[in-house]
């Protein structure tokens, strides 16, 4: 029998490559939730005038047993394709609201929590009742939650999506358009969708090295403010960007200049570093 040799050949690296990363990830993602491989990191948002932390954005992390840390930019699309975004999204929402409530009770009354929501989650008929349930069970106030929405396809003519946004907004939950200006997000959203906040995509912040780039950010701020929206700049890395955004009158900032996304345990130290709290309040 040759099976020993066959088995040996089966396990050579070249054959392993047949099992693509994509397949490994898809298979692993099904187990990730119940195996506790998912974690939320938190990135602060800073008020541009006071310099105070006004809230956090929850960003998911996946620690894969063999592949290590996998970026959400890679596995969220996969979760959307497979429908796994529904249970994963529920877990994110619940965990982030619970964490926000814990911080508020710890004395960080300023903490608002932003959660990224995939448009695929809006196809789930149970989405709104789930959000209401999570807020009730965690005790988080409706206006402490903001939903950040980025779309892969045009959404402004989707009636059921629009109806759900209107319902969420009526519940007092805040709605934010993420990565504004990039991809499919368009000016028609500003007219049709009931939104509170625009997050200027980080490519526009990086583009502020030219006159044109600065003019473009200024134009977005003018339009947004005319419509009474709060404008957040994402991807702020340089003090020069902070200075320019302050001159242009942007409202809130997010980026590595202040903090990378960090685990919950690191947030207290970060708040001290940012001058938001002066001492360890609960030790
Ligand atoms: P996003 O919501 O636009 O989040 C901003 C991304 O930019 C995050 O990447 C963040 O780590 C990164 N970032 C923040 N500050 C800076 C900076 O100063 N410079 C640079 N270069 N990058 C910065 P991350 O965490 O890898 O997330 C990527 C995307 O994955 C998110 O983009 C969001 O669309 C999606 N995502 C993350 N968590 C979730 C989630 O829980 N649910 C859903 N549906 N999507 C999520
Ligand atoms: Mg976001
Ligand atoms: Mg964004
Ligand atoms: Mg983005």
Automatic annotation (TrEMBL):
Residue ranges of domain EAL in the record: 22-275
Protein name: EAL domain-containing protein
Full-protein residues shown: 484 to 766 of 766
């Amino acid at each position: 029998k040759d099976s020993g040799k066959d088995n040996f050949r089966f396990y050579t690296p070249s054959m392993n490559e047949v099992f693509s990363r994509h397949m490994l990830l898809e298979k692993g993602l099904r187990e990730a939730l119940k195996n506790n491989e998912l974690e939320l990191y938190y990135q602060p948002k800073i008020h541009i005038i006071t310099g105070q932390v006004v809230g956090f954005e929850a960003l998911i992390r996946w620690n894969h047993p063999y592949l290590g840390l996998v970026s959400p930019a890679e596995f969220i699309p996969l979760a959307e394709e497979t429908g796994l975004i529904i249970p994963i999204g529920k877990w994110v929402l619940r965990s982030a609201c619970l964490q926000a409530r814990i911080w508020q009770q710890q004395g960080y009354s300023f903490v608002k929590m932003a959660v990224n929501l995939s448009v695929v989650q809006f196809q789930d008929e149970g989405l709104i009742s789930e959000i209401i349930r999570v807020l009730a069970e965690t005790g988080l106030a409706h206006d402490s939650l903001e939903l950040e929405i980025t779309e892969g396809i045009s959404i402004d003519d989707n009636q059921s999506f629009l109806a759900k946004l209107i319902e969420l907004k009526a519940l007092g939950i805040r709605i934010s358009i993420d990565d504004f200006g990039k991809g499919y997000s368009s000016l028609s959203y500003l007219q049709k969708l009931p939104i509170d906040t625009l997050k200027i995509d980080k490519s526009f912040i990086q583009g502020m090295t030219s006159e044109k780039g600065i003019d473009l950010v200024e134009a977005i701020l003018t339009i947004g403010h005319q419509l009474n929206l709060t404008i957040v700049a994402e991807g702020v890395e340089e003090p020069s960007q902070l200075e320019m955004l302050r001159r242009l009158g942007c409202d809130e900032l997010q980026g590595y200049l202040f903090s990378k996304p960090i685990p919950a345990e690191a947030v207290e130290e970060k708040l001290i570093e940012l001058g938001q709290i002066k001492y360890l309040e609960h030790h």
